[in-house]
Specification:
heterodimer; A: Rossmann fold; six-stranded mixed β-sheet; 7 helices; 25% strand; B: 4 domains; ten-stranded mixed β-sheet; 29 helices; 22 strands; elongated
């Protein structure tokens, strides 16, 4: 029996910013289902750009990124969009919860975009909200929530459609330490329950600690970080 | 099932946006509704009036298949009748006398038809009267000699109102008065038409039309080739008669008011266009505000096309709801306008008819589609912008999507402006300045497209300024640093300002030119006129001599106005008879350019500017007019005329009398002797008027006539003013909505400024400065573009529609108050919206996601 293909396979990835400064070159990363890595690095090293490249929102100068075996470079914009919709979940630092939709609708949105029936999507959203400790809040609007609660909604939205890959960009950057710890626990718990591969970009050692392993991003690529 | 899911997401997004910002949707919807309503109302009123007018014409014409009509009211020789009746293929021919008459009731005018009953029975049976015989005498009709004798008249229902059968009616036409007994009802004549039908011989004899006919109604033999018959009939017609078909009659009705109607339609569409800009402005702002939201959707897997579809769907929904509301509003408006202003909306083309409103589903569908298209076009650019946003950049929400250092492209605007400018030089199509209107639309689009570039140019000098006043400096920097938002606001201001300025300058130029023309046209001290002269006659030569000798009269010049039909499908040409040459000439026709001296032996005519346009007549040319048969006249000059859109010729009175034998006149202009007052001379003249016309002669001083003429001008432009006012209001609402939406979207920015220590008052001052500056830049650009567009209206659209030229006269008062109003509206709205935005807690404001 052959081993399952990696969810994320990055080879010799190179990216520079306008003006010519190279962010990183020759970057390699291989993630299997259920693997959870944290990526740390100094400001401006290109952590968010790295996530954007994985999501197909930015173009690499060289190298390949494959998700579930699909090379992003070979896909057009629509195909990359569909791949994001079906296979990837996102959590942002600034929550990005749509203010005019209810919490239930916000969480159900990825399923609805996958053309799931509305009632089914909302039911699944309610389950996910319960899982992140927000049961009974599906009809509330975002303005009624605190930052920590909003980020839990974002986590529920990121996982509601059972993605193969979860990308999180400083998910606790806008939260106080106590709330951040609670949100990280929920995040790590849900990632593991989902069985998805996950990439968490963060400045915070505390946040990185919830991952299985931590990598440091630098110009020469990703380096395993030990001794945490 | 799959599509259902995708639609659900779009529905959530659209409904959520509308729930969050209902007023923006309502404003855009109302703008579309107003545009659709105005367009539909003007169209319905025009269509109803035309249909009523055609019905009225066919009422007088009966059901004749073909008609031969006289070119002038004096008619043609009756010998034409036997020649036509004997033509092979003519089944029946009915000779008709058609006259305008006045009755013994003051102000009542009536159409008199003289018919040969036996002939008319075969051709136009609906015109024949039904005799009413006393009970017991037997009720079988038109055999009684009394009923069809020379004394009998049959009245239509409208003419019979207030009169009894057997009573007498007095008819005066062309100075001849005769009394008739009401013998019955002409019940086949439609409602509301005042018509008297009598025997043709009685009409000829008693109303002075012996040997003359005004028309011959024809019925062709079954199966005969109508085209061939038209040719055969035309071949035997004299110069003073024309063949009229139902089609040519319809074309004549249509051409009578077509330019006026098309102009009103175009004005109404301008309101719709302004509504389109409002949709554009609302959608652009909405898209700009939601850019991070759209970016999120892209990250979550929504394709570009789906985002574009979502924004377009929002626009379509606004257009649909606005359009349907507009249809209902338009029907109501049309109904009200018909009641208040009549079928010609004050234009004076159809007299005082009050037609019934007829709803046309096809017209409703067209205007609904136009409303939808406007909303779609208004949403297209914002939809493209929404779909093109780079998600990774937009999610950072770093402000305006456009880098202020990058100069916007100007070439698309230049292309539009150039093509628009070129279109202004193109000729009319089918008598309608379609390319002139196209030119205006392109100039408007070009002007709006130039705004991002122009905003850069106009704002560049101020953004470097530092006045040391935080509020003003922040306003300068913001306007410079958010170029796309400034451009969106400016587009709305420029679109509404330029349209309004163009209209205002055109109307002011027209009114000013009419006023100047009236001053030249009315050089005498006093004027007199016989009302309903075309019906009841006027001043005969004896009366003219008596009046000229009245005490206090230094000089009395008599004039006459009649008409000639040159083509069956064109409205008639007016003929003005007055002293044009020699010492008696009163110089009452304001000439354009010089006048030529006619070669010896030739009869001169002076043609009006519209006549020169319509018929291509130029000074020095020889033209043939159906006066005294078909006579050649020398065009000695062109004169300015704003009164008769369908053209006029002026003929020296001596020539007219010599050629026609008609010495009757209908008007007089009087120079007073030194020291005599107008009222004193009026009394003296009244004393010398014959009794039969005394009650119909009115006297007026030039200033009264001028005021009266300008009142008529204002009445006929009442709808134009109304449409213009609505466009201004829609434009102002657009400006207010744009500024308000932009201000409310900046709550987070204001919260941040408050955190930095900027006072609430300083933020308000910053917003007012921004609003005023935006308004001022928009007004400057809008007035510039409006002045260019006004030149197209003045020098292209008006001459091609109405065939007269005018000089540009700027309405400084209106322009400055509208400019001030727009700046105040922009600043005031920014102030109000700013106060509302600042009412939010600063701490909460900075925590908000978007």
């Amino acid at each position: 029996m052959s081993p399952a293909p990696p969810v994320l396979n990055i080879t010799t990835l190179t990216k520079s910013v306008p003006g010519g400064r190279v962010l990183f070159e020759g970057l390699e990363l291989n993630l299997k289902a259920g693997e959870f890595v944290a990526i740390m690095g100094e400001s401006g090293v290109g952590k968010s750009t790295f996530l954007n490249l994985i999501a197909g929102l930015d173009q690499a100068d060289a190298g390949t990124i494959a998700i579930d075996g699909a090379d992003l470079a070979m896909l057009d914009d629509d195909a990359r969009t569909d791949l994001r919709r079906d296979r990837i979940g996102f959590v942002f630092q600034a929550f990005h919860i749509l203010p005019h939709l209810t919490l239930g609708q916000n969480v159900a949105l990825p399923l609805v975009l996958q053309r799931a029936p509305g009632a089914e999507a909302l039911e699944r959203a309610r389950e996910m909200m319960e899982a992140v400790g927000l049961s009974g809040r599906a009809q509330d609007y975002p303005r009624q929530l605190s930052g920590g609660e909003l980020q839990r909604v974002a986590i529920a939205r990121a996982l509601v459609h059972r993605p193969a890959l979860l990308l999180a960009d400083e998910p606790t950057g806008n939260l106080d330490p106590e709330t951040a710890t609670r949100v990280l626990e929920i995040f790590a718990d849900q990632v593991r329950r989902s069985g998805a591969a996950a990439v968490l970009v963060t400045h915070s050692q505390v946040a990185a600690a919830v991952a299985d392993r931590t990598l440091t991003l630098s110009r020469s690529g990703l380096v395993e970080r030990h001794g945490r | 099932m799959a599509a259902k899911g995708a639609n659900l997401a779009a529905r959530w997004m659209i409904l959520g946006e509308w729930r969050a910002h209902p007023m923006r949707v309502v404003t855009a919807g109302v703008a579309i509704a107003i545009g659709v309503a105005l367009g539909l109302a003007v169209h319905l009123v025009n269509a109803s009036a035309l249909s009523e007018f055609s019905r009225a014409v066919s009422t007088v014409n009966g059901d004749a298949e073909l008609q031969v009509r006289a070119s002038s009211p004096t008619g043609f020789d009756e010998n034409l009748y036997p020649r036509l009746a004997q033509l092979s293929g003519v089944g029946a021919a009915s000779p008709v006398i058609e006259l305008k008459a006045v009755t013994e009731r003051p102000g009542e005018q009536i159409t008199v038809l003289g018919l040969d009953v036996l002939r008319a029975a075969a051709v136009t049976p609906s015109l024949i009267g039904r005799p009413v015989v006393a009970q017991g005498e037997g009720a079988h009709g038109p055999t009684s000699e009394a009923a069809f004798g020379e004394d009998a008249v049959f009245l239509s229902e409208a003419a019979l109102e207030g009169r009894a059968l057997g009573q007498r009616i007095e008819l005066t036409s062309g100075g001849r008065k005769a009394s008739f007994r009401i013998a019955g009802v002409a019940s086949g004549i439609g409602e509301g038409r005042k018509i008297a039908v009598l025997d043709i011989a009685a009409a000829q004899w008693r109303l002075g039309e012996i040997g003359r006919l005004q028309r011959i109604d024809l019925k062709l033999t079954e199966g005969v080739d109508e085209g061939r018959m038209r040719e055969a009939i035309a071949a035997v017609l004299p110069a003073d008669a024309q063949l009229v078909t139902r089609e040519s009659e319809a074309r004549r009705s249509d051409s009578l008011s077509r330019a006026y109607r098309v102009n009103l339609d175009m004005l109404a569409l301008m309101a719709l266009l302004t509504g389109g800009f409002l949709v554009y402005s609302a959608q652009s702002l909405s898209v700009a505000r939601r850019r991070p939201q759209f970016a999120l959707l892209r990250v979550l897997g929504v394709r570009r096309r789906a985002l574009m579809s979502q924004v377009l769907a929002e626009g379509i929904s606004v257009g649909l709801v606005g359009g349907i509301a507009g249809l209902a509003l338009g029907f109501g408006l049309a109904s009200g306008a018909l009641r208040l202003l009549g079928g010609d909306l004050g234009g004076g083309y159809f007299g005082d008819t009050r037609p019934e409103l007829v709803f046309s589903p096809a017209a409703g569908a067209v205007f609904l589609i136009l409303g939808l298209l406007t909303a779609i076009v208004g949403s297209l650019a914002p939809a493209r912008e929404a779909s093109r946003a780079q998600p990774a950049v937009a999610l950072k929400n770093t402000g305006d999507a456009v880098d202020p250092r990058v100069s916007p492209r100007i070439w698309p605007a230049l292309v539009l402006l150039s093509v628009g400018g070129a279109a202004a030089f193109a000729p009319a199509i089918g008598g309608i300045p379609l390319l002139g209107y196209g030119s205006m639309a392109l100039l408007l689009a070009g002007g709006v497209a130039a705004m991002p570039w122009l905003a850069r140019v106009l704002l560049a000098p101020i953004h470097r300024l530092s006045l040391g006043w935080v509020a003003v400096d922040l306003a300068f920097k913001r306007l410079w640093g958010a170029p796309s938002q400034a451009a969106v606001a400016l587009c709305g201001i420029v679109a509404s300002t330029s349209l309004m300025v163009a209209m205002a300058v055109m109307v002011s130029s027209f009114r000013g030119s009419v006023d100047d023309w009236l001053q030249q046209l009315l050089p005498a001290d006093l004027y007199m006129r016989v009302e309903a002269a075309g019906s009841g006659g006027g001043f005969d030569p004896a009366t003219q001599a008596a009046l000229a000798g009245a005490p206090g009269v230094a000089r009395l010049v008599f004039l006459k106005t009649t008409n000639l039909t040159l083509a069956a499908d064109q409205p008639p040409l007016a003929v003005l008879v007055r002293p044009m040459v020699g010492p008696r000439a009163d110089g009452g026709q304001p000439m354009i350019g010089g006048a030529l001296t006619p070669p010896p032996g030739e009869v001169p005519v002076w043609v009006s500017e519209p006549a020169a346009w319509l018929y291509g007549w130029r000074p020095g040319q020889r033209i043939v007019l159906p006066i005294d048969g078909a006579k050649s006249f020398f065009v000695a000059g062109v004169w300015r005329d704003y009164a008769r859109q369908h053209g006029a010729v002026a003929l020296d009175d001596a020539d007219y009398t010599r050629l026609t034998g008609d010495g009757w006149r209908t008007e007089g202009s009087i120079d007073l002797m030194e020291g005599r007052s107008a009222s004193e001379v009026t009394q003296a003249l009244r004393a010398r008027l014959p009794a039969d016309i005394a009650s119909r002669v009115t006297f007026a001083e030039p200033r009264t006539l001028r005021a009266f003429a300008l009142r008529i001008f204002d009445r006929s432009f009442a709808v134009t003013y109304g449409l213009e006012a609505i466009s201004i209001l829609v434009g102002l609402a657009g400006v207010a909505a744009t500024v308000s939406a932009q201000t409310l979207a900046r709550t987070k920015e204001f919260g941040m400024l408050r955190h930095l220590g900027v006072r609430r008052g300083q933020i308000i001052a910053m917003l007012v400065t921004e609003g005023a500056l935006l308004g001022a830049v928009g007004v400057v650009a809008g007035i510039g573009l409006g002045l260019i567009m006004s030149q197209v209206l003045i020098h292209v659209v008006n001459p091609q529609s109405f065939h007269w030229t005018m000089e540009t006269k700027l309405p400084w008062g209106l322009l400055s108050s509208v400019a001030g109003g727009l700046v105040v509206a922009a600043a005031g709205t920014a102030l109000l919206a700013g106060r509302r935005a600042l009412s939010a807690d600063a701490v909460r404001a900075v925590r908000e996601d978007w």
